[in-house]
Write a structure and sequence with these properties.
This protein is an alpha/beta fold and about 650 residues long. It folds into three domains: about 290 residues, 3-Layer(aba) Sandwich (Rossmann fold), CATH 3.40.50; about 160 residues, 3-Layer(aba) Sandwich (Rossmann fold), CATH 3.40.50; about 130 residues, 3-Layer(aba) Sandwich (Rossmann fold). About 40% of the residues lie in helices and about 15% in strands. The chain is built from 25 helices and 17 strands. It has a seven-stranded mixed β-sheet with strand order 7-6-8-9-11-10-15, with helices on both faces. Helix 5 packs parallel to helix 6 and helix 7 runs parallel beside helix 11. The longest helix is centred in the first third of the chain and has 22 residues.
């Protein structure tokens, strides 16, 4: 593949090299950096649109501030690809999101230029305030800069941090990367005003003068437009913007793709600021790459693609994705029951809720990046007699745990939790691995917790959730395509707390919870080849447990192995605890639990990650043999 010509970028190894470039050269550098990002992501896949939107910001920030002494926090971290190229990682950028390669997010263990890991949104202002406070308490750190997107700043945590930062009054910088609003004042007028800030002999303006000067430098109609734009985002109050009311100096909105605007603003605030400053930059997601700019999702997350055409190289499969199966099943159930509603937190297509949104927009609610609100909003819907499905990724649902406990479980409200991205997820790595939801939900009174072993089971669990009005219920399912089973027209309502035997055997029993059932069946075939007959059962429920099924398995088999795509303390732990309470170990029962290991697993393909976790079929076979004592020595790898 032909690599882009990047003579200016080739002169840059680290941010310090930017200090030697003129403003005109920095503008050229931004153009070359954009082409490098496009070229690299075409080979690796990843979050392209968001990274293209911050190219000029990355150049300007690193040119003005002194990272890594100054702490730069990206929110969300998936927009950090230009930053990584400028911070001594260009030689590895084509390993992005690959096994043993660069993370797709900022990562403290990867580089000193990544002072804070940010793969979930709305954390940057809190972290930046922490750095600023530590500086003021004598720690050897410089300025703190948070770059936060307009979506991320919609979450409550961001406003909690803004409120605290304004009250503290410490010097820090928040850059609002706003790609929902466009503002296009003529380059000449704005550039003339900004360049005048640094005219020889002229004093640096106060920040208030700088903010007011943006608007006054424009012709009348454009000045009015800029004021309206500012008001739309900041909820302008007669006494100042929302941010100003919170204690911030507000500057903007400015063109986040114009280096000639960004540089003088950043230089000025760096030179003059004594307290918190918010700089409002308007950007375009996917900027500079036509296929991304014109795509409905702005190439937010892409697979490998052809740079010229923009065509993505997605593998073909005959099996639908679990996400689409859920989305279509929910749409079908909503057509039959007018009380079914859907709630998602800024991920309608990622969770499959888009199917319902297209057909039943009045019953579909995207609340923005606000998982806490989403859960309590769904609780209010449930308390009113509706049947809310709260569709949130496993790791994002962690952000709303207090609301799950206090607003849902404690009140025994029938909120239906559709938990996507359960288990290991591949290129997004540890940050999005759905490892903990089994543990954190089964610990709660009143909850029913299910896991789908295939696409048809997922449809049954959607139907079961619709019918379940006696309390909260959750079902989990993995990312990616299903196993290709035949799908029914409608799901069937499952008896609560009942699993089923999938394969009969006598030598030992394997009890699977969730989407690892196929690996368990493959392991049973491999055991059969060794002369060991294995029963395989699909538990379906982690809470309530199918105690009758477990009793039958331990009564008729000399050993039991449980398997799940979750952390320790989940399904297997509940099986162990119940068996212990029943005296199951008093008679020498042999049992093993197979879970994800007690560590985070870095990005790789899902297959490689499960191999690392010792949860492949060969590992299940080894554990079964070890449990039976059939073969001496070590079998498989213990995580």
């Amino acid at each position: 593949m032909t690599r882009p010509d990047t003579p200016t970028l080739d002169r840059v190894i680290c941010p310090a090299d930017l200090k030697a470039l003129s403003d005109a050269e920095l503008s050229r550098l931004a153009g070359e950096l954009r082409q490098e990002v496009i070229s690299a992501v075409s080979e690796t896949g990843g979050h392209l649109g968001s990274s293209l939107g911050v190219v000029e910001l990355a150049v300007a920030i690193h040119a003005v501030f002194n990272t890594p002494h100054d702490k730069l926090v990206w929110d969300v971290g998936h927009q950090c690809y230009p930053h990584k190229i400028l911070t001594e990682r260009r030689d590895r950028i084509r390993t992005l999101r690959q096994k043993d390669g660069l993370s797709g997010f900022t990562k403290r263990s990867e580089s000193d230029y990544d002072p804070f890991g940010a793969a979930h949104s709305s954390t940057s202002i809190s972290a930046a305030l922490g750095f600023a406070t530590a500086r003021d308490l004598g720690m050897p750190t410089g300025d703190a800069i948070a770059v936060i997107g307009d979506g991320s700043i919609s979450a409550g945590m961001a406003y909690e941090a803004l409120n605290n930062a304004g009250h503290e009054g410490r010097r820090m910088f928040v850059i609002l990367n706003d790609n929902e609003m466009s503002i296009a004042p003529p380059v000449g007028a704005m550039s003339k005003y900004l360049s005048g800030l640094y005219a020889e002999g002229s004093p640096l303006p106060l920040l208030k003068d700088l903010a007011e000067g943006f608007e006054s430098a424009l012709p009348g109609p454009l000045r009015d437009g800029a004021r309206r734009a500012r008001s739309l985002v900041t909820a302008q109050h007669p006494q100042g913007t929302l941010f100003e009311q919170l204690g911030f100096s507000y500057i903007g909105p400015i063109d986040g793709h114009d280096v000639s605007q960004l540089l003088p603003v950043l230089r000025s605030v760096k030179a003059r600021s004594t307290g918190p400053v918010l700089i409002h930059c308007c950007t375009v997601k996917g900027k500079g790459y036509q296929p991304a700019e014109t795509s409905s999702d702005k190439y937010h997350g892409v697979s490998k693609f052809d740079v010229v055409s923009g065509a993505q190289k997605k593998s073909k499969s005959n099996a639908p994705s679990y996400t689409s199966v859920f989305g279509k099943a929910l749409e079908s159930e909503a057509a039959r029951d007018a009380r079914v509603v859907a709630v998602t937190a800024a991920m309608p297509s990622g969770t499959g809720v888009n199917f319902m949104a297209d057909r039943f927009p009045a019953r579909t609610f995207d609340v923005g990046i606000a998982e806490q609100h989403a859960v309590t909003f769904a609780a209010g819907l449930a308390a009113s007699g509706m049947k809310p499905f709260c569709a949130i990724y496993s790791t994002f649902l962690q952000r709303a745990y207090d609301q799950i406990v206090h607003d849902v479980a404690l009140q025994n409200l029938p909120v239906r939790f559709a938990i996507d991205r359960a288990g290991l997820v591949g290129a997004d790595g540890a940050t999005h691995a759905g490892a903990f939801d089994i543990s954190y939900l089964t610990a709660l009174p009143n909850f029913t917790v299910m896991a789908a072993s295939d696409e048809a089971e997922l449809m049954h669990m959607v139907a079961t959730a619709v019918a379940h009005d006696s309390g909260p219920i959750a079902f989990r399912y993995p990312r990616g395509e299903g196993v290709g089973v035949e799908l029914p027209e409608y799901g069937e309502v499952l008896p609560i707390g009942q699993g089923h035997v999938v394969r009969e055997g006598t030598g030992l029993a394997i009890l699977s919870f969730g989407a690892h059932l196929d690996e368990c069946l493959l392991a049973a075939e491999q055991l059969e080849a060794r002369g060991i007959s294995a029963t395989v059962a699909d538990a379906r429920f982690a809470k309530p447990l199918d105690k009758l099924l477990i009793k039958q398995l331990v009564r008729h088999h000399p050993a039991l192995v449980t398997v799940e795509q979750g952390a320790r303390g989940g399904f297997g732990a509940h099986v162990l605890e119940w068996l212990a309470s029943e005296g199951g170990f008093d008679r020498g029962l042999k049992i093993r639990t197979m879970t994800l290991p007690d560590r985070f697993i870095d990005q790789a393909s899902p297959s490689e990650m499960y191999e690392d976790a010792a949860l492949r079929s060969s590992d299940i076979v080894a554990t079964c043999l070890d449990t039976l004592g059939v073969v001496d020595g070590q079998f498989g790898r213990r995580a």
